[in-house]
């Protein structure tokens, strides 16, 4: 069976209605999961898709490079677009009978006259929100649309984009969206670097430096758990990242794990989050404390 690629809301809804109708009346309705992506699929994305296939009867993987969440036109222009190989990668999972790829174009997602923005206050402020103006409005708006278009029962997002995950959780709670939001642990390369489509932009020399970000955060998280004072620990981690060859640490902060409130000490479940620039590429990562 070949993997279906759907391009518009009508054909997506027709497929989902068919899935829901196909269940015999006597059985529980099939659960549908959505895994939103911007494509250039790597093993991090595939872990989310496998988890969705394990937890739901049917899965919609979405592929849309959402222009509204890019605050930097160059970043959008450089973003990899590899739909044919992404479709082949998904087909190779061997689940084409219960998996579809939804890959709408920008005119489908934002037809002329589109005028609505979903904006989540609080958790979207600071961290990436402070450095990518408008980014989380773009994310919340497109994810709200994907939830409504798919009518999915559950949605899976990676913890690599930890602030994004909390923004989407907040949005789903606030808008009573009938979708369960699941986070998936960050999938890492063997040397600890968090997988990301942007890693492909690193030169070989920069790629060798890149794991220093995860190393510094993991070390700092361990020290904080052991009771080290936060200001000195965060300063040491920042220093370690720049000493390893990163150009700049954009932020490195300790936050509460659920509402991302700034913390002076990890006196409740906490997260250490950072963004740093290497070789002109902005990398993000985070660890539980
Ligand atoms: N290493 C990873 N581990 C777990 N989930 C991931 C990982 N990388 C991306 N994801 C998740 O996959 C989903 C789609 O992410 P996206 O398409 O932006 O990929 P990406 O590799 O994060 O790209 P980017 O370079 O834009 O950050 C998001 O929920 C994201 O958190
Ligand atoms: C969730 C998402 C697909 C929305 O465009 C994007 O922000 C991403 O890939 O993480
Ligand atoms: N991975 C989150 C999407 C973005 O960086 O725009």
TrEMBL record:
Residues at the catalytic site: 45 (proton donor)
Q: Which Pfam families match?
A: Pantoate_ligase
Q: Which reaction does it catalyse?
A: (R)-pantoate + beta-alanine + ATP = (R)-pantothenate + AMP + diphosphate + H(+)
Provide the coiled-coil residue spans: none
UniProt KW keywords = ATP-binding, Cytoplasm, Ligase, Nucleotide-binding, Pantothenate biosynthesis
Q: Which annotated residues bind beta-alanine?
A: 69
Biological processes, Gene Ontology terms: pantothenate biosynthetic process
This protein's pathway reads: Cofactor biosynthesis; (R)-pantothenate biosynthesis; (R)-pantothenate from (R)-pantoate and beta-alanine: step 1/1
Matching Gene3D superfamilies, A to Z? HUPs, Pantoate-beta-alanine ligase, C-terminal domain
Amino acids binding (R)-pantoate: 69, 164
Q: Which residues cross the membrane?
A: none
Compartmental location: Cytoplasm
What InterPro entries does this protein's entry cite?
A: Pantoate_ligase, Pantoate_ligase_C, Rossmann-like_a/b/a_fold
Function recorded in the entry: Catalyzes the condensation of pantoate with beta-alanine in an ATP-dependent reaction via a pantoyl-adenylate intermediate.
Self-association state and partner proteins as the record states: Homodimer.
Which protein, by its recorded name, is this?
Pantothenate synthetase
* Native organism: Endobacter medicaginis
Q: Which gene encodes it?
A: panC
